[in-house]
Design brief:
The complex is a heterodimer. Chain A is built from five helices and six strands. Chain A is of the alpha+beta class. The relative contact order of chain A is 0.15. By secondary structure, chain B is α+β, with helices and mostly antiparallel strands. In chain B, 24% of the residues lie in helices and 26% in strands. Chain B contains eight helices and 16 strands. The longest helix of chain B has 25 residues. The chains are: A alpha+beta, B alpha+beta. At the A-B interface, helix 1 of A face helix 4 of B.
């Protein structure tokens, strides 16, 4: 199923006409046509989902986690803070996914969940 | 409210010209690039005649009728439209425009404001009317085109045509492109050409596709067709010609004012990008009550006991496309 990539804006007939975004309600015939003109801005959503095995999740930093990842200490991250990590295959880890009301997951198996992406100080403040 | 101004109280001098925004001149009207049918107040009938002559073997007895004398009437009622804004000239009292206001507290009318600012507004009105004549699309037509089943054949709406219809911002009138796709409550019988994004590299190839689709009888007739193209194609053609060994495919006059493709004159009008129309000018009709209505702007006080004013244009407009089966619509 084709769709316009998130964040892309397609203006196929100039600025006197309108533009399409990922929120435009378009038929597959129109999307197929747009794909011939804008191949980089249209994606097959099924294919995209199959290839996407990464996920960014929020975790609460524990003392053990700081011990295993000394670079977090260097960054000034403290126990109890929330950081984002990018896990390649989230289902492979022993994680407890939170409910929408409680958007935090807690990593129980630290060794299986290496922190690949650390948040910046700015984003930490935003999380707080 | 009409006056949206960042005014500096005038002291000393003001740079004389007021810098106006750049607008395309309405050449469709000024140069009569299509057919104009005015005095169309209401319910004017346009008749198209399409005959089939069928040769048959002679018989000395009772002959049988064969062939068709086809007549199709279309009743056209132009849509009445207006542009209307109110403004308070008192807000200009401290501005540069005070210089030509007459003495006396009653007087706040500025001839410079009327001549330059309202004059430029009039050009914007005229351009908008031209834009809608070519590229307008009503909500009803947008919905109708979206509901058609797309296909590659001439008797089906093209995916590109549906894409254009979906992209177009809704307006109060249908333009030429919309009428070619959807006309008289059904798919138009235009000659459909599937295009792509036109660049300076492929412009000759893409024009070739549209040119090849023009019925030979259109090229052979007395009235020559035009290719109607977006303004940007002038630049793309010039760039293409720079690297062309022989510049006879796109021939351009020395003053870069007149452009031809394979002997057909190109007229640059506000059609959408990646769109080319090839048709005789008499096939595209701008129906209105009075063509000069577009140039008439009424400026007056809103009421006798008030000093704020209005500027108003009133005109009627309808785009009618005839001989649909001979008109080429290229859409990328």
């Amino acid at each position: 199923m084709l769709k316009i990539k998130k964040g892309e804006v397609i203006t196929p007939y100039g600025h006197t006409a309108g533009s399409f975004t990922d929120e435009s309600d378009l038929s597959q015939a129109i999307l197929e046509h747009l794909q011939t003109r804008f191949p980089d801005q249209i994606e097959d959503s099924k294919k995209g989902k199959a290839n996407n095995t990464s996920a960014v999740i929020d975790v609460v930093v524990t003392a053990e986690m700081l011990e295993v990842n000394p670079e977090l200490v260097e960054e000034g991250v403290e126990e109890g803070e929330v950081v984002q990590i990018d896990v390649v295959e989230p289902e492979a880890f022993d994680v407890e996914v939170s409910t929408p009301e409680e958007p935090i997951v807690e990593i129980k198996s630290l060794e299986a969940a290496p922190a690949k992406k650390k948040e910046t100080k700015k984003s930490k403040q935003q999380i707080k | 409210m009409a006056i949206s101004a960042t005014i500096v109280d005038i002291r000393g001098k003001a740079y004389e010209p007021i810098i106006e925004e750049l607008l395309f001149e309405n050449k469709t009207v000024a140069n009569k690039l299509v057919a104009f049918e005015d005095d169309v107040k209401s319910e004017t009938i346009f008749t198209e005649n399409d005959n089939i002559a069928t040769m048959q073997a002679y018989t000395s007895g009772a002959p049988s009728s064969s062939g068709t004398l086809g007549l199709v009437d279309t009743a056209v009622t132009p849509i009445k439209l207006m542009f209307y804004q109110e403004f308070d000239p008192n807000t200009l009292r401290s501005s540069r425009f005070k210089r030509d206001m007459k003495k006396g507290a009653w007087n706040t009318a500025s001839s410079e404001f009327e001549r330059v600012v309202l004059g430029a507004y009039g050009k914007a009105v005229s351009y908008d009317a031209e834009l809608k004549f070519w590229s307008g699309e009503t909500q009803a037509t947008k919905t109708a085109i979206a509901a058609l089943t797309p296909g590659t054949g001439q008797t089906a709406v093209g995916a590109a045509e549906q894409t254009w219809a979906a992209a177009q911002t809704v307006s109060l009138v249908d333009g030429v492109v919309a009428r070619m796709i959807y006309n008289g409550g059904a798919l138009g019988t235009r000659i459909k050409v599937l295009g792509t994004t036109i660049t300076s590299s492929n412009i000759a190839v893409e024009y070739g596709k549209a040119y090849a689709a023009i019925p030979a009888v259109v090229l052979a007739g007395g009235e020559k067709p035009y290719i109607y193209a977006p303004y940007s194609h002038k630049q793309l053609i010039n760039i293409f010609n720079v690297s062309a060994t022989y510049r006879d495919l796109f021939s351009v006059s020395d003053d870069k004012e007149t452009y031809f493709y394979n002997g057909i004159e190109i007229k640059f009008v506000p059609v959408p990008e990646n769109c080319i129309i090839a048709a005789k000018p008499s096939h595209l009709i701008w129906c209105t009550d009075l063509v000069s209505d577009l140039n008439y702007m009424e400026i007056n006080k809103i009421a006798n006991n008030r000093d704020d004013m209005f500027v108003k244009h009133v005109f009627s407009q309808f785009t009618h496309v005839v001989n649909q089966a001979y008109n080429v619509l290229y859409l990328g």
